[in-house]
């Protein structure tokens, strides 16, 4: 369901929108918010609810790992997009689950007229890292 009003979105966002995602703001077009659900470094699997304002998306990026790794997105509220480089975009709705294997160039974010949240799950692996790449251009995003 598209939700353009922040107050309405907050009412249906079961994990809350969290705090402004200032630590990663340089990798997002628009405002995003982060609500960690597990404590990084203390739990073997890090989970965080990530919220995107309408039109917000992260840069193209790749989750690297020598073995295992990757990311799982569990969509919880609003409407979003996921796209792998060179493939058609996938519309995201509450209840959708996306597995992103390590080594896949991709982005995710909200649709232009809707807030969007997903739980990001960092899959365990060996020598995991995240490689941030170029922003998704307005032209790429507008063509979704």
UniProtKB/TrEMBL annotation:
InterPro entries named in the record: HNL-like_cupin (IPR047263), RmlC-like_jellyroll (IPR014710), RmlC_Cupin_sf (IPR011051)
PANTHER family (UniProt xref): BLL4564 PROTEIN, RIBD C-TERMINAL DOMAIN CONTAINING PROTEIN
Protein name: Cupin 2 conserved barrel domain protein
Organism: Cellulosilyticum lentocellum (strain ATCC 49066 / DSM 5427 / NCIMB 11756 / RHM5)
